[in-house]
Amino acid sequence: MFKIGQHVIHPGQGVCTVVGFSDEGPAPMILLRARSGRSETHLSYPLSQQNRLHEAISRDAAEDLLATYAELDVDPFTERNSSLEETHFKQQLKLGAPETVRVAKTMRCRIAEAEARGKKPSSYYARVLKEARKRSIEEFAVALDAEESEIEQRFMDAVAAAGELAALN
């Protein structure tokens, strides 16, 4: 069971804060607050589906993941149909870190590989990379109690240290 004030990963909204619980209505609910951009969204999430929510990454795990970014393996999943590939990677984003970071790294590598072959990268790579970056930065900012701009810079530094293209971060 989650506690009030705890940060969780909502499958559709990303990082949310548990703000309460409600027994009113047809089913017990977890009350969540999501911050996207400058606005807040208040959500009610069925308590019966709380297993779909994940705890946000801890401070120590976030620091460790940033420190060992270069060693993080890319996701080898491939499918002949790019729509099925995109679905796979979007499912991974629902799990929170470290999977969001792995997906971002995978998309960066796939874009670089396509460009190195003189090919235009699949358009879904950029879409998934953008969402993976957003979710990773949001979760790390909460875990490390830092501004998103600071976390973005730390990721760019980790990407550069790994020899990847920081511009794609």
List strands and helices in order, with pairings.
Layout (H helix, E strand, L loop, with lengths): L6 E4 L3 E9 L6 E8 L2 E8 L7 E2 L3 H9 L14 H12 L5 H18 L6 H21 L4 H14 L8
Antiparallel strand pairs: 1-2, 1-5, 2-3, 3-4
Helix pairs in contact: 2-4, 3-4, 4-5
List keywords for this structure.
169 residues; alpha+beta; single chain; 5 strands; 18% strand
Tell me what the structure shows.
The chain has 169 residues and is of the alpha+beta class. It contains 5 helices and 5 strands. The protein has a 5-stranded antiparallel beta sheet. The longest helix has 21 residues. It is globular.
User: How large is the count of helical segments?
Assistant: 5
Strand order of the largest sheet: 4-3-2-1-5
Helix and strand content put the structural class at: alpha+beta
The coarse overall form would be globular
Give the N-to-C terminal Cα separation: 35 Å
**SSE order in H/E notation?**
EEEEEHHHHH
Main beta-sheet annotation: 5 strands, antiparallel
Oligomer state equals single chain
Low-pLDDT sequence parts: none
Number of strands: 5
Proportion of residues in extended strands: 15-25%
Gyration radius over CA: 17 Å
User: Percentage of helical residues?
Assistant: 40-55%
What is the residue-mean pLDDT, rounded to a whole number?
Answer: 93
